[in-house]
Amino acid sequence: MRSLENAQELIEKVQPDWMGMIFYSKSVRYVPEEAKVALAELPVNKVGVFVNASLEEIKQCIKDFGLTTIQLHGDESVAFTKELKAQTGLEIFKVFAIKESIDWGVLEPYLPVVDYFLFDTFTKAYGGSGQVFDWHLLENYPFDKPFLLSGGLSIEQVAEIKKLQNRLPQLAGLDINSKFEIEPALKDVEKIREFKKLVYN
Ligand SMILES: O=C(O)c1ccccc1N[C@@H]1O[C@H](COP(=O)(O)O)[C@@H](O)[C@H]1O
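Above: the input record for the complex with LGQLAAA5. Below: its predicted structure, written as tokens.
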């Protein structure tokens, strides 16, 4: 999110557990530096979404925007992720871009370093594609580590999402984005409220 009014309305009406801001300059949802004064004061857990950013860049955004959580949405190594955790102590979501299969061995070294895994659909643009991956690939998820589901989540998938929640208790949250927008970065608050009601009631 990047509009103060839209974010305030969403917080008031939906009370999300987290709210994301994209700090990847190639994204249509990129949050410019000028937004920092307004967004920093929002009373919500703020997730900074980064794609192969440097430690310095991430630390500057943490300071400017009052981030509580870092979402690493690129090809960040275990060593980089460990250093970020050591230097900031903040909550970390590490994203894995899913293609036709998942090699759980690749995720394993991240276990001691991250708070949540986040699964998104593979795309050359890294994220925000609105594309859904094959959720069957998660059925043999081998870890206790909680994970978040992402990638084109929409209101039409509520029944399937509920089935997945029943099968996989490690599924800790749903990361919604482009399917709940009026335009890039402007969220449809009523649609999100409806989605939350349908999924959690
Ligand atoms: O939204 C973007 O533009 C974006 C760009 C680069 C990396 C991540 C991005 N967004 C994240 O992508 C996922 C899935 O979004 P969608 O539902 O498929 O639109 C989500 O984590 C967004 O935060």
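Notes for the reader.
Residues 20, 22, 24, 27-29, 49, 51, 73, 120, 126-130, 150-153, 175, 177-179 surround LGQLAAA5 (CB under 6 Å).
DSSP finds seven helices and nine strands in the chain.
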